[in-house]
Amino acid sequence: MQKEIRVRIAPSPTGSLHLGTVRTSLYNYLFAKKNKGKFILRIEDTDQERNKDEYTKGILDGFNWLNIKFDEGPYYQSERMDLYRKLAQKLMDEGKAYCCFCTQEELDELRKIQRAAKVPEKYDNRHRNLTEDQKNKFLAEGKKPVTRFKLPDHVDIKWNDEIRGSVCVNTNDLGGDPVIMRADGVPLYNFAVVVDDGDMKISHVIRGDDHLHNTAKQIPIFEALGYPVPIFAHAPLIFTHDREKLSKRKHGDIANIDKYQREGYLPEALANYLVHMSWTQPDNPEAEIFKLDEVIEKFELGRISKSSAVYDLPKLHWFNNHYLKEKSIEEIYNLSKHFLETDLDLSMYPKDQLLKMIDLVRAGINKLDEIPGLIKFFFDDKFNLNEGENQKALNSENAKKILDKVLKTLDSMNFKDSHDCKKTIDEIGKELGLKGKDLYWPVRVALSGSNKGPDLGLIISLLGKDKVKVRVERALAVLV
Ligand code: GLU
């Protein structure tokens, strides 16, 4: 019988949910679904100094927003300390791990010497074979030991990576025997992760390729604990155009999911973008637009590219714009409501008018938080008429004549019909022998504070008679 497919994502709540973690989660999710397996969420929260509850909350919120569902979890490592301690002790009892009493000063000194000698910096396993007497002496001095795992010496650790193919790392290049438990009994990543992956019967570990060396440390730990070694798949990391690893520290907000939630990107667009970054469909490699559910059946780990992915904001905007176009105007209204409410007094217009305003600008937006700025002029007429293009348009030769005529025709205009509004302006143009920007710009500027923007007939119709009158009068006052 085929072994059950069980995969996991194991974020540490030491920061917000990183884009790279989201992408790896999506690959895990697709792989689990394709193979009718289980996808598990594990929060790796053993580092009490750096963990924050708000990060855990943000991580859970982020997955929820992206509609990534888990079959099990969240499990919390902080609730599993007894298991790590028990298994660390077992390794000690079996002679597979040992107490190391080296102080930080000693380790720093060692590193200094290695640096000066231009040899790789590593722990030299000096406490691997302490005698009982030596140990007792350290203990009598009040020193508290860390626990180190005995890595085999000079052994090639090899595995067949589902993405990278055959990988080989020599244990000599791993920095010496790794610490698995701190002196205060807190497990370190490379140990806790193996205990959990073993205990949770994880069949495939799909994670970022920054963990390649960790995998080489972890395989001997799996073996020492008697767990089957999972299959590994290391996905490339996300880099910027400058070939830097995408990170919050260097690149700020763009590295974390919060920004995309906050600014009105659609989760399905972000998911599509992230999966597409390094994965193409076997039967249609050119296809860019796909929903997660549509590609489950086609998903293969082997089609994840080995080369690093490049973060490209305009491309993400392209995806978002595409998915926004698929939404009904009502959906866009609901999704953007909190952005609108924050900036605009929505009670000024009935809902059907608001929908029309959004419809006017939706095609040109990359994300939902752009909408309030684009329709703000419907709500606020305090735009500056005395500068730049606005001033130029109102100082044009015929601006006064045009605006005077607009005022005079207000009573006969049918504001319910945007075509009629536009026709009225065109008729004014005919009377004055004007068309194009000579005719439209002064009207546009008077009504919206800009010579660009949506259809003029629609602007007039949505503003309605009273607001048009006030705005035209205000522009005429600026003119004289
Ligand atoms: N907590 C680790 C991280 O966030 C998990 C890595 C892994 O998947 O093993 O990088």
Describe the structure.
This protein has 480 residues and is mainly α. It has 4 domains: 167 residues, HUPs (Rossmann fold), CATH 3.40.50.620; 100 residues, Glutamyl-tRNA Synthetase, domain 3 (Alpha-Beta Complex), CATH 3.90.800; 52 residues; 92 residues, Arc Repressor Mutant, subunit A (Orthogonal Bundle), CATH 1.10.10. Helix content is 48%, strand content 11%. It has 20 helices and 12 strands. The strands form 5 sheets. A 3-stranded parallel β-sheet has the order 1-2-3. Strands 4-5-8 form a 3-stranded antiparallel β-sheet. A two-stranded antiparallel sheet has the order 6-7. Helix 17 crosses helix 19 and helix 18 crosses helix 20. The chain starts with 5 loop residues before the first strand and ends with a helix. The model has no long low-confidence stretch (mean pLDDT 96). Bound molecules: glutamic acid (GLU). Glutamic acid binds next to loops.
Structural descriptors:
480 residues, mainly alpha, Glutamyl-tRNA Synthetase, domain 3, 4 domains, three-stranded antiparallel beta sheet, 20 helices, 12 strands, binds glutamic acid
